[in-house]
Specification:
Largest sheet: none
Radius of gyration: 19 Å
Shape: globular
Number of strands: 0
Helix content: over 70%
Number of helices: 10
Length: about 210
């Protein structure tokens, strides 16, 4: 149990690093220090939070197939944490967009959602994440029972929409979007062939 607590504490601390880095860059910008936010700091901050949103989403989805493949069951204990950090970074991404780019002009928000497909897709993905975040607790699992697992399959739809969102945002290089797309495709396949993953892990453990 103590080892698990250390593992969860370390995971929590690591998950805070991107946010801490962003805060540090803002501090450097405000104090005239060296920063990496470029000529358009507001846009850079919005994109930074968005990038870490999809990274945490993919990390949370990778937990189960890696656990099945390796037998490292402790990973499952941090899956909920990674999912909640995904929602937290998605929320900071949305808030940064509202405050820094739109300056809380909600009229422009409606126009952006209707006219810019990548914002439409991103907004839909965020809305789908809300019920997932609200039900990421033991109480919801007990109350929803089998419906909980069905509801949380929406996360795969969120992942697909996230990749589409990143792809539409790409301008010169699509390498990052392609990498995310490949990971999501592998995750979807691992979901389909989850039983085969278990058999493969068992085969690895058999003596030659």
């Amino acid at each position: 149990m103590p080892k698990l607590s250390v593992f969860k504490s370390l995971t929590f601390s690591l998950c805070l690093l991107p946010l801490g880095y962003a805060i540090y860059q803002v501090y450097q910008l405000q104090t005239g220090g060296t920063h990496v936010l470029g000529a358009d700091p507001a846009k850079a901050l919005v994109l930074f939070q968005g990038e870490w949103t999809i990274r945490f989403l993919l990390l949370s989805l990778l937990v189960t197939p890696i656990r099945r493949l390796t037998g490292w069951n402790q990973l499952q204990k941090v899956r909920r944490m990674l999912g909640l950090f995904t929602f937290a970074y998605a929320s900071t991404h949305l808030l940064a967009y509202l405050f820094l780019l739109l300056e809380l002009d909600f009229g422009n928000l409606g126009a952006d959602i209707l006219k810019r497909p990548y914002i439409t897709v991103g907004f839909v993905a965020y809305l789908l994440m809300v019920p997932l975040a609200l039900t990421s607790n033991s109480f919801a699992i007990r109350r929803l029972k089998s419906r909980w697992a069905l509801l949380h399959r929406l996360v795969y739809g969120v992942a697909v929409l996230g990749v589409v969102h990143v792809t539409w945002l790409a301008r010169s290089s699509y390498s990052e979007a392609i990498a995310y797309g490949v990971i999501v495709a592998i995750l979807l396949l691992s979901r389909v062939f989850k039983d085969q993953l278990v058999l493969f892990r068992q085969a690895l453990k058999r003596p030659v």
